[in-house]
Structure formats: structure tokens, C-alpha cells
Amino acid sequence: MLNGKSKSSQDELQVRLGFFLENNSRRNLRAPANQSCSSLTSANTSPVSTLTGSSEADVSRVLTMQEAATHHHYHTGCESIGSMMSVSISEQSNASSSPVSRRHSVTTSQSGSNVDELLAFKSRRTTVRRSARSGQIKGPIDPKIRFAQYRQQQLTLKPLFFEVPTQEPDPLFIGRHWLVRELATAVQSTDSPGVLLSGNLGTGKTALLLQLVEYSCFGRRKEMPIAESDGIYCQINVAHDRLRSLASHVVAYHFCQADNNSTCLIPDFVHSLAAQLCQAPQLAAYHEFLLGEHALQHVLSVKECIADPERAMVMGILEPLATLRRVGKISAKNCVILIDALCEAEYHRPDHGDTIASFLQRMSEHFPSWLKVIATIRTQMLEFTKGLPYTKMSLDAWTSNESLQKDILEYITFRINQSQSIQHNVAGGREIVNTSAHFKFAQHLLGLTKGSFLFAKLTLDLIERGNLVIKSSSFKVLPVSLAQIFLLNFNLRFPTATAYERISNILAVCLAALYPLTLTEIFYSLNALIAGESTGGDGEQRERSAGDDDRTEATETSAIDWDEFLCRFKTLTGFLVKRIDNTYMFFHPSFREWLLRRDDGESTKFLCDLRNGHAGIALRLSRLQAPLDPDQALELGHHILKAHLYRSAPAHHSPRDLQAYWVASVTSCVSSALSTLRNVYSPNIKVSRLLLLAGASPDHVTPFLGNAPILCIAAHEGILPMVNLLLEFGASVEQTNSQGCTPLILAASKGHCDVVRQLVAAGSCLGQTDTSQRCALVHAAIAGRLKVVKYLVACDWLPRAEGGSGAADVSLEQAAQQALIAAAGQGNTEIMEDFLDMGEVQVNRLDVITGETALTTACANGHTETIAILLSRGASTEVRNRKEMAPLLIAVKEGHWAIVERLLQHQASDVELREANGKTALMVAAEEGHVGIIELLLNRGASLIAQDKDGLTALSWACLRGKQQAAKCLLERGADKQHADSTGRTPLDLAAYQGSASLVQMLLDHGAPIEHVDINGMRPLDRAIACRNVQVVQVFLKRGAKLGPATWAMANGKPEIMLILLNKLLEDGNTLYRKNRLQEASHRYQYALKKIPVVTGASESVTAMMTAAIDPLTGGTVVADSNNNNTSSTSAASNATFQQLRFNFLLNLSRCKRKMNDVAEAIDLARQAIEIKPNAYDGYYARSKALMEHGNYAEALRDASTALARAQQTSPEIRDTLTRLHSDLQKRQMQVFADTANSALASVGLVASAMENVRTVAGATSRSIAESMDIITDL
């Protein structure tokens, strides 16, 4: 520990330890250099101890998802248990990012780079993770390499580290077949949410749960074959399948351990439970769900679990699981959560809040029926679980339960048969095996056990080792209780008082620790208790002398070196068991309790004094780890109070003042210690008092609950003792959090009436408001806290003294008026009626904050009963809110049918009531799409033709908001579909503007005018184009809407609309061409060519098109507000499409002109097409045909050759057609040459006849080729 430090640093550390030793002694005072976390193998480690979150289940799921080769091979044999651990890999885990560190949790960060630092418990806030997937691994492992293959699959949730210590490497487990069968039946039952298994000490409750974990997805025996020669398992082969079947339902487990406080705390329980559920293969869907829900990951973080564990449990675990099961993502199979030793958690009962047992009781109603809990508890502490609705099973009826007797007898018989030493001892030392003596002994021991496997085991161990020698057949030498067994063991180990005194403080330190300690921590805690003659410092002398009078053991006068410490510690072998993380725990809770307390009539020998242990830990923390961080300061305060070091302090010094001075002198910031997350939400009152005495500020601002002071959080959580403590030390009742909430407001909103009383008595101002201008009374009314409301109303509302912010305070009358409206809005009728009984409150007055009346806010929130009460108490339906909305209009807008009907019935309310802009209730209902209310209003006589200030009817509003069902209802009830508003817009215009294609289709089906023109010259199609409603435009085009000048004007700058319109012209032209209406088709093509945007210099073209814009709703001209970058990118993207369209139109128009015998125009159009796409064969083919019609065979042949060359990558049919055209042109050209050469022989008849035949064949071939190519160019 001291290696690498200078001699002066060593001396300084020795002085702080109180050791003024010689050089030799100092050199011996060291921890062995070879002690490191890379060698955590222990012969005492139990192979049936539970596994942590990096379990085989996690690996199996990862390997299933990633079928990739890995460089690691995982072995699950028992011989590899020593290396079944892995270092916490993430510095960004919850523990490192939150102000809370969990010592024995895998969320704790660890550098892993400096082995020496791991020996120094000053920085030991780390842990290790145990894994069944790891094999024998030599030397340190780089976690970045080891976990690289699936790091991205991991969540920030990390489970607690559990290990149940045992004395043997592989403890024997026999029997319990009947219990497994009963548990399996209970798990499959739908009558109970779980099973509560009770039993006395040593009845095997934990052993059974360990077996279930071992055979579950988290264990090493999940797929282990059963060998007939295996003595342990040959006894359970019959029930093996049943045990494995029950274990297959396990999806999480938790072991509460009194000597490991983190396992007994609810926040850690919830966080660890979520982490294990994510790793269970049965709940892989839950893991995937959390990966995509970062908000839920935050809810399940350690910080949030501490602040609100109930919310984390319900929102982060139970509700997602129920939802996933409901949608079929989790298989229809009951799942089980194992929770061991609920009684152990009771030893860490917080000053405020639940234990795990009471927490489960409150959460049981939220558990889905398929998620079962199997929990265990000691029989003597069953009263703590009387509220749990679980099926009760007991292991204590051993006299009447033959199965219990059979299990223990089977265990005893097996032990006797497997041990010759036991056989020899039972037979009285004779070599011949006496079967009758063995049977008699087994029966006698069975009667002594009273159902305790632990008693049978420890007794047989004593006999097997020869510590008990059976001399008579009466077996009187056998112990009769666990206490006698422990006493016998200690008498054998420590025959003298001196021998026990050598290890008594070691036991005291381990008993006093809040968590399992390492050898190094125990060593320094032990040495811190030694007060030699050379103790350094007057303060140290006072420290020791203050507590010496209360110690019963002799005090050593010199420090213990490391070798001497190891020698002493070795005598406790078997009682203290080493765990995977190099810490030590007592082998069984019963032994721990025997050291602490005895029953009446039992020997008090070897009782431990816990004060020594607490003193040692406190002194060690102060000397070696100062200045202490907040969590360490809380731990120090706990041990100081338990140690009672200053009980014999001088008269002029108060013991509490000395303790406070001690804490203040070694803590970096006592105020930060007071406001740690755990102490804020689950405070230790006595330690908090000590911190306040040490100088902690009662007004310290925390980073929680909106930077709230400590008093605000205590009031919000309803922790009355903490509130009283802070008020006692002068905490300000007027301090607020960032939302301006005072402690009184927070307590009132949560309904903590006792806290409210204390705050009011302490001078809290009743009229002080938060940033939303609401006082405590209003918040209580909103939350429905009737008791708090009655108390606050009965108090004297006195303004604050001058100098404060009294101007912002509200009077009782103002607060009551606000509270009335707030209560009405939440439907808290009882509170509302109380306020209505007050003379100062008026039912029709507007709230100065929200501008609502009680009736309008009740209408908005749909509280029918509240509205009935208000109407009966004189509320007026004519009084409007600040927005000039009457109650009827608000109810219509929110869709509350029953309230609308109630208001219409009350005093014949006007059905034609209007808003400030002239909208009637029917228009509001149509606008919101409330069909039921529309029918109700129409039945009450509402007018379909009523108009608002803009001339819009109910049908107009339905179309404007796209409410198709509302519009359909109005049309069926006779609404005018041709009505035009003040600007000439019909319902179809408004529907086109809104963009609902189905609504437009419905209006057209009902006969709405498609070509109606408003006062701005816009038609419905134009309005749809202006709004870029592509689907609506397509509907109009299919219904034959005409394309006018306004249409193209609206389409300017909208490439997607232009493409639709141009495609429409192309389809129309092609249809006309097929009908041989060439003139009309030619007109369509020419019209379209004029409308295609100019793509050359696209930026200028588009800019020109975008210089002006039309408002699609009103039809007026507005200044265009376009983004130049967006315009350029849109133009560039559409250039290619428009070029292709121009190319197609030119080709089709060329074909029309050719068939209309306008060959010259056809040639010119084909030339323009070639200029657009010079590498395409189409343009050359079109020009070739036009030239052929013109008689220019040479040019036609040249274009045909070019077309054939460009068509090499096209289909064979096209190439064949082009080849035939090329051949025909060659023949035609040859014919021209022949006609010229033979002009002199024109009179010869044979030649003329032959040439005529050639021309006939050539003409037929030309027509065939022409017809073929006409087909492939039909666009």
C-alpha cells in the first residue's frame, strides 16, 4: 500500500494512523504485494453462489444475434469458478455518472489500470462482476477487448453483485422434490401472484433458490448433463426435470443480505431487477424495447430509482412488460422472480419509506398476472409480510410433514454413507459397520434437527472431523441447538480468553461493516483500534481515552503487522468466507446473529461488542481516507454514532459536539454530505443531525427537484422527522426551487398535511406563490388534497413583513377563487363545494391567471358531475372566458357530448350561440369533426345555412379542416354544396386547399361544381395546385378538370405539379393519335411544348417563375418567400425530367407532322430532339423516316446507320427493325442509282417490268418497317 511513496509520506501516514514503530515493524506493516484483483480465486467460493448480470443468459442471447466467431471460449465446469469474474467495463455507468455509488454493484466504475490502487481501500469504490461464460483466464484482461464484440448491445443497466457464501466448494443439495412440485403448481396457477416460503433458520430456503438460479438461464447447470456416478445428483435424478422446468421460468433473482446493505435497499433492488430482466432470454423483447426507449432507461437509472422507485418499477418495468405480452412479443409462459430473505432487508429498515417487503406489497397490484414472485422469509418475521397476497408455504411443520422428515433423513443417511469417519464414530470406534447404530443415530439426529438442514450439517461436520466423539448409544454428547454448535466450535478454536481476544475485534469490524470488507480494510480497521503508548497526537489520545472506559476486552498496546494479522485471521477460517470480489462475509446469517445476541438461558460467552467494530471503521475512514466525500461522510457518521466513543467525555465537552467536530474535521463538505441523493430521499435522521451539528447548512441547495433546497425535498417527500430537524436548525421556509415552489407548496400538492402543519407553525407564508402565480391552497385543490385544503382555509392568512416579496402574495379570497376554478378543472367536486360555501367566492368570476370561470374550465375538461353542481349553484351559461368562449362552445369544441346536451337542456340555451368571429356551435363541431354533436345540434334546430363573418357555413368549416365524416353528415342533412363565401370559395375550393383527396372525391360525387371560379379567378384545381396537393390535383384531372391560364400560373415553380399536368397532356395527345385525330393530337403536343419550363439557364428560368406567388386560400397575390438554395436544387433535380418530356413531345409531334405530310416540320422537330439527346437512337430514327418520306435517301440512310449504331444496347426487336429500315433505304438508294444508269433503256419492256417489280417489293417493305417503328415510338 505504501510502495512508491516517499519516506515523508510514509511517516505522515504512520502519524495519522497513530503508529510510531521501528523501521522493522514499519516494514512488516504492509499488505502483501501479490494481492490483486487478478487472483480472486478462493477455495471457499461456492460454485452454487449466484451469478451477476453478465450472465450466461446475456451471452446466449448476444451469440444468437451475432453468429460471429469469437476469440474467447466459455467453460462452465465447476473447476473454473475461481475465474468467473469480469471487471466493470464502463466509466459511464449509472454509478459513475450519478452522485450515488453502489459498492457491491456492477455499476461501479473501475479503472483496472493500476493494481496497487485496487489494494488501497481509499479508492475502493469498485466491484467485480461474476460471469458463468468466462473460463480459466490467466492474468489481467483488457475490458475494452473482451467486450468489444457486443458493447453496442449493452444497456446502462447493471445488476447487483450477489454471492451467497458457503463453507464447501460444492454444497450438498438433496430432497425438496415435493416442494419443487408444489412451487411449480403455484407458478402455473392464476389464483395468486406469487409464493411466500417461510421457515426457521437453516431450513434450506436460500439453498433451494440457489438451485433454481443454477438451473435457470443465469446458472451454470442450465444444460449440464446428469451423470449417474455423481453422488450429489444421483439422488435427485427423478425430480431433475421438474426442477429444471421450474427454473426455466426464472427471469430475475435477488438475495437480500444483512451484511451487504445495498442488497436491502429498494432503489438498488429495482435497478438490479430491471437489469436482470433485460438479460433473460425469455424477455428479449423487453431488452430490445429499452434499447429504443432512452426515456425509460433514464427512469430506471440508479438516480431515478432513488428519487422515485415506485415510478421506476411501474413505468420502467411492469407496464412495458405487460404491454409487450399483450402485443405478443413475450411468449405466453409464466415467468418467475426469485427474492430471498426478505427478513434480512428488515435489518436495514430506513427512517422513512418502505422495506423491500412493504414495497412488494404496494406493487403487487401492478404486477401482470403472468409474472410470479417466489420469496422467502424467516418464520419469526412473517409479520412484516402479512400484507403480501402470496400463497403461503412453510418448512416448519416437520413433525406433521413426512416429506420434510424424509428430506433431512435422506441427507443424514447420505452423509453417513459417504463418510467412513462418521460411520466409525457412530459405531463407537469399531471397525465393523453397525447398520443398526447408524439407523438409530440418524433417527436421533433427525429429531434434534427440527427441520434444520444447517443443524444436521454442522453436527455431522463436527462428528466427521472428530470434534464430537459418540461414546454411548444415548447420543447425549450431541448438541441440541445451533447456538450450542457455534459455542462448541468457538470453544474448540479459542480455548482461552486471550485466544478469543486476539480475534474479537476482527469479528466486531466485520459485524459492524455496512458491506463486506477486504482483508486490507479489516487489517487497517483493526490496527486503528490499537492505542499504544506512542499514539500520535493529543487528539488521537483523546479519541481513544474517550472510549476506553466502555470496552470489556483488554487493549493491545502495539500495532499488528500483516503476518500476525493473517495468522489471526486464519483462525476464523470457515466462519468468514471469501467472496469472488476478495471481500469476506459470515458463512450464515444464524452465526452472525449468534455473535450479536443470545436467547434467554443461552451462554453469553463469545458475544461481540459492535462498538469496537464501529470505532475501528470510523477511525480507519478518518485517518486513511480524509478528506471524505459525501457518501463516505455519511458512512463515517453512522459508525461514529454506533461506536459511542465519547460517552465518557469530560464534563465541559458535549459528546455530540465532539462527534460533530470529528466529522467536520475529516469531511470535505458536510453540506454536500447532508444533501447526497440517498440522504435527501431516504435520510438517516441521526446522521443528518450530526452533519448539521458539524456545520452543514440546512438551506443547502441540491441539484434535485429543480435545484430545490433540502427542506423543499423533505416536504415534497413528506419526511416529517427531516422537516422538523431542518426547521430546528433554522432552515428557511421561504426558499424555493427553480419553479418558485416553497416547501409549503410542495407539501400541500403532495397532501402531506402533517408537514404542512409544521411549516405553517414555522412561519411559512400561506399566500406565497410560485412562478405560475399559484399558492399552496391552489396546488392542494388541483391535486385533490381535501384535508390540506380544509386546514389551509382554516389558517390565518397574514401578509409577510415588509422587506419580503409580499406584493406577490395572494389573499385568502384570491386564493380561494383560484382554487375553486382549479378544483372544477380537475373534477374535485368535494373541494369545489367547500369553496362555494365560502362567502368570498363567486361562482361566475374569472380566474385572474387562466381567464376561465369554474364552468368553462369544467366544460373544457369534461367533468359532467362538476358542471351539474355548478349549474345548481348558480353558474351562468352566458358568462364567457377571457377568449370570449361560452361554456357551450367550449364543450362543443372539446367534443363532450353529454355536457353539450346538459347545457342545451339548462334554461333553453341558445343553440345558435356564436364566438367572437361569428362561428356558431354547429360550425365549431364541424370544424372539430364531432359527428355526434353535429347531429345533436341539428336535432336541436341548428341552422345549416348560418354564416360567420367570412361567409363560411358549417360545411365550409368541415371541408376547410378536412373532416370528411362531418362533411358527409352535413351533406346528408341537406347542406348547400354550392355555397360561396365572401370571396367566392365553395366547399370544394376549401377541400382542395386542405388537401384531402377522399373529401374532394366525395364532394365531386355529390355534384360539387368542379369549374367554379371565385372572385380572384381561381378554380378548385388551381387552388389544389397552389397548395401542392398532388393527390387532389390527380383527382381533379381524372374528373376532367380543364387546364386554364390560372392553372399554369399556379403550377409555376412547382415541378411535381408541372410533371402531372404535362403527363396529362401527353396521355391526351397519345389517345387522340391512336384515334387518328392527328390535328388535335398535334395541338396537344405543341401546347405542352410551350408549357415545359426552359431548362437552359435553369436558375434564371425558375427565378422568373417564382417572382410572384398566389395565396392558395384567398387567391390574392403575395410576395414570394422562397429559398434560393432550395429553388436551385429543385430546378437541378427536375431538369433531366423536363428534358425527357420535351424529347418525347418533340418525337410524337414529329410523327404527327410526318403523317400529316408536313415533312419539313417533321424533320426540324426530329432535329430538335437529337439536340436534346444526341446519343439516343430515337431522334435519328424519326428524322430518317421523315427524310425517307421526303425522298432524301442518302441523308435518311446516314441517320438510319447512326440510329443503328446508337441502338446496340437496346432490345433485339428494336435492332431488327432498325436493320430492316437500313436495308430498305439501301435498296431505295440502289434503285435510284439503277434508275439513273438505265435511263437510256427505259423503252425496254423487260427491264421496265423488272424494275416495277422491284419498286413494288421495296414499297411493301417500307410500309412494313414504318408500321413496325410506329409501334415502338408510340409514347
Automatic annotation (TrEMBL):
TANC1/2-like AAA+ ATPase lid domain sequence ranges: 396-491
Keywords: ANK repeat, Phosphoprotein, Repeat, Synapse, TPR repeat
Pfam families according to UniProt: AAA_lid_TANC1 (PF25520), Ank (PF00023), Ank_2 (PF12796), Ank_4 (PF13637), NPHP3_N (PF24883), WHD_TANC1 (PF25521)
Region: Disordered, residue numbers: 31-55, 88-112, 534-555
Compositionally biased spans, kind Polar residues: 33-55
Limits of the Nephrocystin 3-like N-terminal domain: 188-378
Residue stretches making up the TANC1/2-like winged helix domain: 493-530, 557-668
Main location: other
Extent of the ANK repeats: 739-771, 850-882, 917-949, 950-982, 983-1015
Compartments, record wording: Postsynapse
Cross-referenced PROSITE patterns: ANK_REP_REGION, ANK_REPEAT, TPR
Gene Ontology, cellular component aspect: postsynapse
UniProt repeat feature TPR, residue ranges: 1143-1176
Basic and acidic residues: bias regions: 539-554
This protein's record includes keyword Ribosomal protein: no
Domain of life where this protein originates: Eukaryota
Recorded family membership: Belongs to the TANC family.
Annotated protein name in UniProt: Ankyrin
Organism, as annotated: Anopheles triannulatus
Source taxonomy: Eukaryota, Metazoa, Ecdysozoa, Arthropoda, Hexapoda
